[in-house]
Amino acid sequence: MVREFEYRGETFRVNAHGAPGHEEVFIMHLIDGEEFGEISIDRMTEENDTSAPLEAIIIMLCDRLIIEREIQVAKPEGAFAWREGKVLFKVHNGVQDHA
């Protein structure tokens, strides 16, 4: 899955693939469509809560990226929300579906 979302007033893109709880998850911070910072986790090999939903892992990674990159977020209390119409690719059972 490649999809854009908003969190704390900022725009991010997630690229996640693998079985639920065992994904590789990459987060990119976007500013005006350009990538400014990236963070990732390999849930197959790195310590994590494999029962946590993907959205929880995304939020955890965003929080880490915000601290590491000292990002001054636009809305410190802004919630996680998928950007509608921003599904770039979906992959299910190994077959790619162009959204």
TrEMBL record:
This is Uncharacterized protein. The lineage of its organism: Bacteria, Pseudomonadati, Pseudomonadota, Alphaproteobacteria, Hyphomicrobiales.
